[in-house]
Amino acid sequence: MRLPLSPDVLAAARTLWDFHLVYDDLAEADLIIGLGSYDLRVADRCAELFHEGWATQLLFTGKSGNWTKKLYDGSEAEAFAARAGKGGVPDGAMLIEPEATNIGENIRFSRAMAGDNIRRIIIVTKPQTQRRAYATVRAQWPEVPALVTAPLTRFEDQPVEAYPLQSLIHEMVGDVQRMVEYPAKGFQIAQSIPRSVADAYELLVKAGYDHHL
What we know:
Helix 1 crosses helix 7 (about 195-205), helix 2 packs across helix 3 and helix 4 (about 105-115) packs across helix 5. This protein is of the alpha/beta class. It is built from 7 helices and 5 strands, in the order H-E-H-E-H-E-H-E-H-E-H-H. It has helices at about 5-20, 40-50, 75-85, 105-115, 130-140, 165-185, 195-205; strands at about 30-35, 60, 95, 120-125, 145-150. It has 2 domains: about 5-20 and about 160-205, no CATH class; about 20-150, Rossmann fold, CATH 3.40.50. The protein has a 5-stranded parallel beta sheet, with helices on both faces. It holds the Pfam family DUF218.
């Protein structure tokens, strides 16, 4: 069922979008970690950062999920590596972690694969999952400085055919809930939720955007 996209819903969705953005200033790192998803623009961004010289090694992480098993023949990580390869990244510069099923596993499994000689990492994910990735890596890989970034995609351009705007809103609502609940479980660090974000979250839940809760 397609839920309504009233002006109030769109305004609330944009409030959540703005809250989820991080876009850290970049610095040279030992490893760029691309979090797998439906959004191959993340792989393109990883390739761009590689060619710009921010790191000499990429690690793509992610199994296939509910959305991506219909999009890719193999895992998200393999699809991202193939895309980065088409963007000129050599095979020898890429590691593939094909088992992670959520952001927590993305971070934990990448940490295990990366080894002990990592001094700084760059996390690349979808724009709307930057804050969740930041909170997760700070809780689960705290000893290594981590910068978080994403493709430079506008809110209006983020939806794609396989993942329309309603799906994006469901995801952003669910991630706000996780930011409230996950710190007590040790999955993420605690973060302050502004009143405007809490109000937008409540409006969207009441409007039916609760599939990721």
